Amino acid sequence: MQLLNIDTNIKSNSVRRAAGSPFLSNDSKKGIEAVAITVFKPKGRTNYSCQWVDPVTGRKKTRSAGTKIKRDAERFAGNLEKQLASGTYHEDIRMTWDSFRERFEDEYLPGHAQKTHDCYGTVFNSLERIIDPKLLCSVNEAAISKFQSELRKPRSRSEDKPKTVLSEATIKFHLVHLKAALNWAVEQRFIPVAPKIRMPKNPAGMKGRPITKEEFDRMVEKVDVIDSKTPEEWKLLLNGLWWSGLRLGEALKLHWTDESNICVDLENELLHIQAHAQKGRRYTQTPMAPEFVDMLKEVPTEDREGFVFNPIGSRDRKQRIRMDTASKMIARMGEAAGVKVSETEGKTKYASAHDFRRAFGLRWSRLIMPTELKEVMRHENIATTMQFYVGQDAKQTVKKLRQASANTLANTSKNSPKPAKEKDCNPL
Fold this sequence. Notes:
It is a single chain. The protein is α+β, with helices and mostly antiparallel strands. It folds into three domains: 3-86, no CATH class; 97-187; 213-388, Intergrase catalytic core (hpI Integrase, Chain A), CATH 1.10.443. Helix content is 43%, strand content 11%. It contains 15 helices and eleven strands. It has helices at residues 26-29, 70-86, 97-108, 114-130, 141-151, 168-187, 213-221, 231-244, 248-253, 290-297, 323-336, 353-365, 370-377, 382-388, 394-415; strands at 3-9, 14-17, 37-40, 49-53, 60-64, 254-255, 262-265, 270-273, 284-287, 340-344, 347-350. A hairpin with an 8-residue loop joins strand 3 (37-40) and strand 4. The termini are far apart.
């Protein structure tokens, strides 16, 4: 077995052969401890290997240089030494995907909302179904490209259901979460670099649209299609979503007295929303719309306890209804009422709970300033408010322009001085 002790000169990037004991680099002469790497060819092997002692653990480590040419192996050892010296060396490139997922769920996800847990679970399950990676490092550019391609193909969850196609927004949702997980893997030094991911273009506009008052009334009339034992509670929930602008999950958490999630403050006409109870993850005191305040004040004082909205599904259960179940039931009302909000690639989307919030935002965008609307809608960024709610109704803008023009002309005609009468210059 041939042994070759080497060290590297970081400044010149050259590898020098040692005689007897390993040479030290210029940095090590300045007091920085160098790692001596031995390059050798194991008996019965084709390629050279690199061996060194971990300065932290004191254990001997070995890695293949991946080449049978000694000079290339020495170059590999030089690069390896620089990585060890700078702290950028990643030795756990053979980590299995299952081990990574377990550590990600145990170390990264705690402290995040349950919805975040569910989102990552959905993405990881899809990746395992399509790619079935054995090693973390196998989730590379080629694998992600295939993953993205397979997501675009029509798929049916069961034989008795028609095939559906995921939207570009849903595909981007998968890739964004996968990218975040792989970036965390880089931070933990499980992989050297994260693979590049080509993101789909942002879908133009909203996924749905603001529904009209007439469409809202049609949906309220179709409450019976869900076969609930408490149709009046469902009507109350629909009206609450329409007048409040709350997200469905927030509305189901709305409480008369308990401030641990979202609490009503009728005296000050505010909603006290804890950080964990809303999307923005920050505590807010949000103004309530006057119509929503009036609606809540109609509830008798003695009934103002517990949750504000208490819908029950088609099955009589003691526990509160889940948000996803309530969402599906409201979507069934939208379909029964024939309220279509989008049609893409032959797929029709009917009105859902979030279209109530869109309608709320559009109504108030005509009445208050964008900064005030941002506060009411609780958007993290004013750009979101401007993109989806300000200037989205072209017909309404035309009416305002016409009205403004008429008012300007009327004011101009009133304020303009009357022409003076011509004086008769004839002295006779």
